[in-house]
Amino acid sequence: MNAVVALESTVIAHGLPAPHNLDAAYRIEAAIRAEGARPCTIAILKGQVRLGLEPHELRYLATAEGVRKVSLRDLPVAVAQGCDGATTVAATLHLAWRAGISVMATGGIGGVHRSADGRPSMDISADLEALARIPAVVVCSGPKTILDLKATREQLETRGITTVGYRTHEMPAFYTATSGLPVDARCDTPEAVVALYQARLRLGLPGALVVTVPPPDRVAIPTAVLMPALEEALQEAERQGIAAEALTPFLLARLRERLGSRVLQANLALLEQNAIVAARIARALAMAALPLSPPASCAAITN
């Protein structure tokens, strides 16, 4: 049985503060191994694609300065210029599928960004393009809370990406279990997820099966607490003229300031939970002996 779970590395280099980033990386990989699957954290180190990182390489990503955030457009630049890069959901999904890995775990997916002035945003994450193109299983806690959730849900539907609620009928929104938006189907077991995935492949559909898992009850932040803090942050961003690429880190920083350790606790807990669910799905998929057709140029996993 070859049950492997791909993991992005942006959360290590850019998503979590030290020392929580390294602790999270170790805990996520350990949780996957405890479920009988193999973790495969993906990154670019000195221009080389790395499929599976050693402990010292995880430490390097968590502590080094100048690690580039690498999405799809950045992959050839990072490789050609010999950069260190932490891969986003989109880049990780692309590299994982090329290596024959069909299950990935992350925290939240990207989507349509909110604009500070409330106008429609043209800032759309490359994650949606990758999800529309690559036929993998992506386990997450829904779109990140700071996004335009309704517009992101509509984009998922338009691009033919099936969204599953894992033991829920409602799409979670990262820190919170509720978004007010429906999923396309509910699955209560890994085997049910695999059945849906098999059906997509048999039908020849491109794109991912996105499995959304609510954050654990003990750390989930109620919408009534989360959304007022987000609205305040958006209003502050408009007053300061903060927009485009600077808006997302600004909003995240303001949420951490207003809600304190609750944001970090929710982030760490949902990452570990998603990894566990992904490992169980990967095992069920391996047991189903589903024939896949990854490219012939599959790279070896190092750990």
TrEMBL record:
Q: Which reaction does it catalyse?
A: D-ribose 5-phosphate + uracil = psi-UMP + H2O
Q: Which InterPro entries match?
A: Indigdn_synthA-like, PsuG
- In this protein, the active site sits at 8, 144
Q: What is its EC number?
A: 4.2.1.70
- List, alphabetically, the SUPFAM superfamilies matched: Indigoidine synthase A-like (SSF110581)
Q: Give the binding site residues for Mn(2+).
A: 123
Question: Which parts of the sequence bind substrate?
Answer: 69, 89, 125-127
Instruction: Enumerate the cofactors the protein uses.
Output: Mn(2+)
Q: Does the keyword Cytoplasm apply?
A: no
Q: Which GO terms describe its molecular function?
A: hydrolase activity, acting on glycosyl bonds; metal ion binding; pseudouridylate synthase activity
Asked if the keyword DNA damage belongs to this entry, the reply reads no
The record's Gene3D superfamilies line, in alphabetical order, gives: Indigoidine synthase domain
Could you name the domain of life of the organism this protein comes from? Bacteria
This entry's comment on the bound cofactor is: Binds 1 Mn(2+) ion per subunit.
Q: Which UniProt keywords apply?
A: Glycosidase, Hydrolase, Lyase, Manganese, Metal-binding
Instruction: Give the GO terms filed under biological process for this record.
Output: nucleobase catabolic process
Instruction: Give the top-level enzyme category.
Output: lyase
One cellular component term (GO) for this entry is: cytoplasm
Q: How does it assemble?
A: Homotrimer.
Q: Which family does it belong to?
A: Belongs to the pseudouridine-5'-phosphate glycosidase family.
Q: So what does this one do?
A: Catalyzes the reversible cleavage of pseudouridine 5'-phosphate (PsiMP) to ribose 5-phosphate and uracil. Functions biologically in the cleavage direction, as part of a pseudouridine degradation pathway.
HAMAP family, A to Z: PsiMP_glycosidase (MF_01876)
Tell me the protein's name.
Pseudouridine-5'-phosphate glycosidase
Give the species: Rhodothermus marinus (Rhodothermus obamensis)
This protein's gene is called psuG
